[in-house]
Design brief:
This protein is an alpha+beta fold. It is 21% helix and 31% strand. Strands 5, 6, 7, 8 and 9 form a 5-stranded mixed beta sheet that branches. The protein has a 4-stranded mixed beta sheet with strand order 1-4-3-2, with helices on one face. It holds the Pfam family Glyoxalase.
């Protein structure tokens, strides 16, 4: 079998939130993401392909959950889950452990987006920083949504930010 070497595209990210309707509202109003599928309830059952897939993923120890699908401007999917029996407190931020650390969004108006996140009940975790002070306008900041999910904001694309050697002197 021939190995095909090419970069895979990013399809979506799944995020568990405490309240599906509040999360959809936040991500739609603050992040501008499109609602692809409004919140709905999935019940455990074996009669449909979706039901069987959910049992395969989540096992047998659940009865139902809420789900919604959203999309960024470039078509990256955001799959929101809310489980009635799951923990509802803010997850512990520990980037030193193996696992998903954060995701990143891009907005040239980083100051305004950060302000809107805070006004909506989120947090700014650090000052907005420049990668190349007085040289290039590339900025970044870490924030939290109102549910304690940590993410990053860039002003410019990933390629532009790092192709110039952000960590080199």
């Amino acid at each position: 079998m021939t190995e095909i070497k090419y970069p895979k595209s990013f399809s979506h990210i799944g995020i568990t939130v405490p309240e599906i309707h509040k999360a959809v509202k936040f991500y739609q109003e603050i992040m501008g993401w499109y609602v692809i599928m409004k919140p709905s309830t999935v019940k455990k059952e074996n009669d449909t392909a979706i039901g069987q897939m959910c049992i395969d993923v989540f096992g047998e120890n659940w009865e139902e959950f809420d789900i919604a699908h959203m999309s960024t401007s470039e078509g990256i999917g955001i799959e929101l889950f809310s489980f009635p029996h799951g923990k509802k407190e803010t997850p512990e931020f520990n980037p030193f452990n193996t696992g998903l650390f954060h995701f990143c969004v891009q907005d040239p108006d980083i100051e305004n987006l950060t302000k809107r996140i805070v006004e909506a009940g989120g947090k700014q975790r650090m000052p907005i920083r420049e990668y190349y002070p007085n040289e290039k306008p590339y900025k970044m900041v870490y924030v939290e949504d109102p549910f304690g999910i940590v993410f990053e904001i860039y002003t410019h694309s990933y390629e532009l930010t790092y192709s110039s050697g952000a960590y080199q002197k």
